[in-house]
Specification:
The protein is an all-alpha fold. Helix 1 runs antiparallel to helix 2 and helix 3 packs across helix 5.
Length: about 120
């Protein structure tokens, strides 16, 4: 469903469907804890306060949804949300630039190949 949603969002915004579909594989259960820890660290670096040690303890012991909700509703939420926002914006800009350059290189390469074949 995530790939279909990414592809559907590409249509009105003229996005690159293969890139969007491929990037959906970044958000899976194996990478989610890494993104959360990175966003907390980034949020803390920007002046918010979230206890990363508490996050790791909750993660390691398999805390319940109530414990996660209590932790998130503490002062950790602003750090997490701000960190995720920064990571998302930076990843989007980097992905856009890489995709634009790769697409440009590919189209120029195809055009040069066609012209060389005609000559």
């Amino acid at each position: 469903m995530q790939i279909a949603g990414a592809a559907a969002m590409c249509l009105p915004f003229r996005g690159n469907i293969p890139i969007a579909a491929g990037m959906t594989f970044l958000s899976n259960p194996a990478t989610t804890p890494l993104f959360i820890a990175a966003s907390l660290a980034l949020g803390n670096w920007f002046g918010f306060h979230a206890d990363v040690a508490t996050f790791m303890a909750l993660f390691e012991r398999g805390a319940s949804l109530g414990e996660w909700t209590g932790w998130l509703l503490s002062d950790a939420a602003p750090a997490l949300v701000f960190g995720l926002l920064v990571i998302a914006v930076v990843a989007a800009v980097v992905g856009y630039v890489i995709a634009a350059f790769a697409w440009r290189w590919w189209t120029v390469h195809k055009r040069r190949t066609r012209l060389a074949q005609r000559l």
